[in-house]
Every structure is written in structure tokens, then in C-alpha cells.
Specification:
Order of helices and strands: EHEHEHEHE
Strand order of the largest sheet: 1-2-3-4-5
Helix content: 10-25%
Strand content: 5-15%
Distance between the termini: 37 Å
Radius of gyration: 14 Å
Number of helices: 4
Number of domains: 1
Length: 114
């Protein structure tokens, strides 16, 4: 009999989130980096957690302004996350350029929840 228990979402909320990111196991499929006090190196995440299906970056003040959000989000190599299906960005704008980059080369678009 198969176990249909959903995998828990890994939530990171720390004063030094970049250090916490470096210790993540590469097998994670769901992660929430919610309301972090300081920016993190988002561009490192695809190599640290290549199997992500759900990524939640909601309520991060360093992503609230479109220019700032674009600076961080455009550095990410979204093509390395072939399994990514959901990107949550509550209170974080997503420019058209970033949205296009996010879905470049995909058969199915990533669902963006704002």
C-alpha cells in the first residue's frame, strides 16, 4: 500500500538565512523562504535544491519593489528547476521579463501565486 502522506514544506525564517540555505539537503521539493529580514542568494538555490516543486518567497520586504525583485529574480537560472510547478510571491511583484524568463523552455508554465 502506498503512503500518500504529503511531504512537509520546509520553512526557513532565520536571522542568517544564507547560512541556513547552505545546509539544505538537495532532495528538498518544497521550501518557503517567507518574511526573511535580509536578502538571500536566490541564484544559488537551483544548484542547492534542484528538485524543487514549490518555492514560496512571499512577504519578503527586499522583494517588494519591482526593481529590487527583478534584480534578485533575474539572476536565478530558472531552467535548472525543471520540476518547479508553483512559485508563490505574495506581496512581491513579478515583471513581464521575469515571468517570461521563469517559463522559458518549459512545456507547462509555472503557476505564479501573487
Amino acid at each position: 500500500m502506498e503512503d500518500h502522506t504529503p511531504e512537509p514544506l520546509t520553512l526557513i525564517s532565520a536571522h542568517r538565512p544564507t547560512l541556513a540555505l547552505l545546509t539544505l539537503p538537495p532532495t528538498l521539493t518544497k521550501i518557503a523562504l517567507v518574511n526573511l529580514p535580509n536578502p538571500v542568494s536566490l541564484h544559488r538555490l537551483p544548484s542547492l535544491c534542484p528538485l524543487l516543486i514549490i518555492l514560496d518567497l512571499s512577504f519578503n520586504t527586499w522583494l517588494e519593489l519591482e526593481a529590487e525583485a527583478e534584480k534578485f529574480l533575474l539572476r536565478v537560472d530558472w531552467t535548472r528547476w525543471s520540476h518547479l510547478r508553483v512559485l508563490r510571491l505574495r506581496k512581491c511583484p513579478l515583471s513581464k521579463a521575469t515571468h517570461e524568463m521563469l517559463n522559458r523552455g518549459r512545456w507547462d508554465d509555472v503557476e505564479v501565486i501573487q
